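Pasting two entries for a bug report.
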Amino acid sequence: MKQNMLFVIFSFCLLMGLSPLASAAPSMQGSTGNINTPAADVLRPGQFDVGYYHLDGVQDISFATNLAKNWELSAVGRKSDKGDAAGQVNLKYAVKQEGVLTPGLAVGVEDLAGEEKRSVYAVASKGLPLGFRLHVGLGNGRYDGAFAAVEKRLVPLARGGVFPDMSIIVENDGHHMNYGLRMAVAAGLKASAGWMDGKPFVGITYNYY
């Protein structure tokens, strides 16, 4: 009886769009996450992703891969229209995978070499009814305290990561409110657009699963 009930709950969560990696994509910082904040998700063995964002004259190109079980390694390079360049390497570890009733938890370090602003953080992510997903974290460096994000899948019954799957994202990265729309164009390929700190951005990402 208990097993049947858990199966029903799990099936309901999938139907309502709560699969942890349904809308996963690299953030502007390179690690799997939202717009400018991380999620508790990490890439699994054999998975990798690449991303491109353009914001206020700055282009970000990122790459992330599974380093070992529960470990994600990512890097991002930035170049402005003025020719300035910078980059960072990030590491994230999934302490606990998200379950049907329990949140996922991850800890990570952005900018390991301190090229821009090294930041250490912890973040929890949990899918909620009606296609919502909540991310809450604490960090130092560029976060300077708490950060949070809310995702809402707009087509709950769409197959995760395949058109017409799309999500709206609202987040606070510790300093600014950011808003975005992430839409699956094809399997693994997503386009995004929105506003970060009041400035428009566009992006395209590819996840190999």
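Entry 2 (this is the one that rendered wrong in the viewer):
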Amino acid sequence: MAFTMPAPAPLAGELDPATVERARARDPLAMRAFVVRYERPVFALLSRMLGRGPHVEDLAQETFLRAFRALPAFRADGTARLSTWLLTIATRLALDARKKKRLPLATPEAMDAVADAATPATELARRELGRRLARAAESLSDDQRAALLLAEVHGFSMREVAEALGVEEATAKTRLFRARQRMREELGEASLDEETRDEAT
């Protein structure tokens, strides 16, 4: 059975090149559009890695400040998407923050499944699954947690996960494999299957 985590609302697409160019030139409206376009995935990633609180807002702000400083060097014609590049900055900031001082891990509520137009019973099952996923994720190391979130929630390729973590691709694969294995062990395949069946009914 494939292991999946609740995902944030998907991005409709990357910021258009003209706006990116204006943001490079420090155009205030373009910089604001940049933040509006990417703040949700940045906050989602940081909250899932570190738990909610003022430290997430501080790190999100630092993510965008660093991005604006480095934006002139970003190659729009390169292999990295702008969202991937930005989330890589956020990931490294979060990992650094965890190493420098003890920051809380995400609370179960921070990883609740995204609500949809479902019955109350289905929504309750989705929320319970989200809480159980969050509790299981607390057992992961920081690097494993980051690899899992980037791959399963934010759709990073294995190469992108490796670049975000600053490791070889083989190392990223190992971390993701161990994270998935640990999550399955913590959740128990049978109970996860039961939750999934309940959600589908």
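Dev reply: Rendering is fixed now. As a check, the viewer should reflect this: The CA atoms of residues 2 and 180 lie 9 Å apart.
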